[in-house]
Amino acid sequence: MIAPFSFGLGGNAITLSRSVFAEMEAAGARLAMGPTEMGQALATVVSGRRDRGDAMLTLAVVHPFSGHNYELRYWLAVAEIDPDQEVRIVVLPPSSMAAALLERQIDGFCVGEPWNSLAVEAGAGVIAVTKSSLWRQGPEKVLGFRADFAQRWPERLSALLRALYKAAEWAGRSENHSELGRILAAQGYLAASAEIVERALSGNLVRASGGAPEPIPDFLVFHDHAANFPWQSHSLWFYSQMVRWGQAAYSPAFAEKARQVYRPDLYRGALARTGIDLPRASAKVEGALKTATPVASRNGTMILGPDGFFDGRLFDPDQLEAYLKSFGVQIQGAAK
To answer: Cβ(116)–Cβ(219) under 8 Å?
Structure first.
């Protein structure tokens, strides 16, 4: 498989049941708090349940190998909640999550919009944390192909990448959000309220039933900040999380395979003739930009960031082993 195009940044959130959030509020949580304080409150709830002998929380994600799973685990781990021992993580389709929360089959979930907002609208949940607060400018969906497709149909692939670039550019303009919301809300797509879909597109989320819309910086980015560029540092971060949570083994050869899944060369080749600005680098230190920062690019006009992780960590793709060791991962054959 190869991934020559990123569909955007952000767009996910972690929603918890109203009863769980009420327990967190009793532990001091407030919606105005950031993910660190929210995680501490959830840790108090988890430890309290353990001490009482109550059932552990059940949290849903869309797939074991998904950004949603890694984002949820990252947040839990920073709060010193063991995602494999102190909560139960299950897989559910996004469209089933709000109903499962309402019926108390699960206690929370991490998913993309509009499923978080639909759970809030149904009175089932509270949006506790957004992906953009966990990792601002963090990647989400990509376009995947079999590698041989790119070899057999290079011009077709290039044309598709140019079309998708224009689509992302259109979708990223605020003046188009109402139309895009109506399109996505249709019965054949999300079958949801256009007004609720527009919350995600505009980044103005209602986080609890009866609350006012809250602007979330960079909640969902379709085009700005080089959102469509397939940074190989994104690919390697996902690989690092697979290794961290025991889904894959680590080796330099596997790391290189992970790096080569993302194909900035194909992206550049498809878009070079359009004259748009393109990054000079193919990877970057993730989380290093604290403010909007000019970066090296073909036309010299590219500005990225801020892109920080909420716990202040950096991910340097050239220091992958050190990053894994910082989480306590044992690297076989690594130097002491």
So the answer is: no
User: Angle CA(77)–CA(225)–CA(171) in degrees, nearest 5?
Assistant: 105
> Domains of the chain: which residue ranges?
11-134, 142-171+225-336
Domain 11-134 has CATH 3.40.190.10: yes
**Contact of 117 with 109, CB cutoff 8 Å:** no
Q: How many CA atoms lie within 13 Å of 48's alpha carbon, on the beta-carbon side?
A: 11
pLDDT in tens, 256-293: 999 999 999 999 999 999 999 999 999 999 999 999 99
Any idea which residue has 């002998």 for tokens?
Answer: 53
Using alpha carbons, select from 179, 199, 181 the residue that is nearest to residue 190: 181
Hey, how many other C-beta atoms are within 10 angstroms of the C-beta on 143? 17
SS3 125: strand
SS3 of residue 233 by DSSP: helix
Q: What is the DSSP string of 239-299?
A: HHHHHHTTSS---HHHHHHHHHHB-HHHHHHHHGGGT---BS-S---BT--SS-EE--BSS
